[in-house]
Amino acid sequence: MKENCRLVIEYLKLNGAAVTESTGKAVVQLTEQLDRKFMNRPFYWHYRDALQQSGDPLQVMIVHSKSADEHKNIIQLHPDHPIFQSIFDSAQNENRFYIAYEQSRTLTELFPWVIIHMTAEVVPPGSASIRFEGRISLTTGRILVQAQEEIEAQTLTGDRPNDSVLHQNKMPFETSLNILNRQLEKQIELQFEENLKEISQNQPSAPSICAHHISAGLIYLSSP
């Protein structure tokens, strides 16, 4: 379930939500667009629209499992919550390309990377999906391909930092994207190799790996 929470959090970030993460949870301030789409408050927004007033998007908390601890004025969303499931479905189905920048008060030079997010699972029997992330530097060709949450996370936003200098690509974008895709496919095959052998011995039909592209982006980071 942790992979599902990570995917939901990244999806909300990429759609403009402000996210504060701590152990086992993330507090999310939704944007108006996200609130309208997922929080099932049509009458509230119709009322605001009729009065030509701006509304107040809700704040939610993403948690790995349902908790008995209630927080005033904040809705807990766990993997079994219908709103969580709705956001998760959108995160999987809305393949999108984005541009984002690492945020820091001291950053001046930023280097371009291509990033791809995927999930993969074995079918049958429909095992839990695993999230994969891959990056390739467009200046050095360095590749990072890892499963789940092993790649160091940076704070990314859609706003370019003031006074930042963006380095130019040294590798063609399409070539880099194809290289990264191949590396991700190899990583996925290695990840499920033992699982496929085990399932093949117990299933009449041959199992296969089903992979889904979630999103891809051009991100600018402090490391080349």
Automatic annotation (TrEMBL):
<dbReference type="Pfam" id="PF11079">
    <property type="entry name" value="YqhG"/>
</dbReference>
<dbReference type="InterPro" id="IPR024562">
    <property type="entry name" value="YqhG"/>
</dbReference>
<protein>
    <submittedName>
        <fullName>YqhG family protein</fullName>
    </submittedName>
</protein>
